[in-house]
Amino acid sequence: MSIAPAAMRWAKRKLRKEDLMSAWNSQWTQTTSSLEHNAEDAAISLRRAATAACDAVAKRSKQPPQHKPQFWWSEEVAEVRKASQRACRLFQRAPLGSELRESKIIQWKEACSSLKKAIRSSKEAEWRQIIAELDRDPWGLAYKIV
User: Fold this and answer.
1) 40 and 83 share a domain?
2) Between 111 and which of 47, 63, 79, 87 could a Cys-Cys bridge form, CB atoms 3.0 to 4.6 Å apart?
3) In a domain, 97, yes or no
4) Is residue 3 a contact partner of residue 43, using CB atoms and an 8 Å limit?
5) What is the CA radius of gyration of the chain?
């Protein structure tokens, strides 16, 4: 069970330690009087008190714009990329000058090659689909990409 969303952030530049401490002290006195004997409920109460204290002294920071995935990105490409990253890590962790390192670099190069092939095939397939869709909807994805 999650206590609170991990995305809560406050503008730290405008935050003053003294104000935060006084807000926390007031929230803490309210929270300690109502702490339950259950550890999970106590953690939730403390999280709420910390959130209320931070809200009292600072504005919440705006979320950064989320990166939009490329039009050709797919689950298949994500899986191949994950395998490629794993092969890279295994290569980097292999002892220098060992036969294991030589085999790991070969596996890593093969994984990188398969990633490039997966990206290329995904791009080709998506472009074919976009071109086929272009006659039906000229203001669709093709327009957005350009």
Assistant:
1) no
2) 87
3) yes
4) yes
5) 26
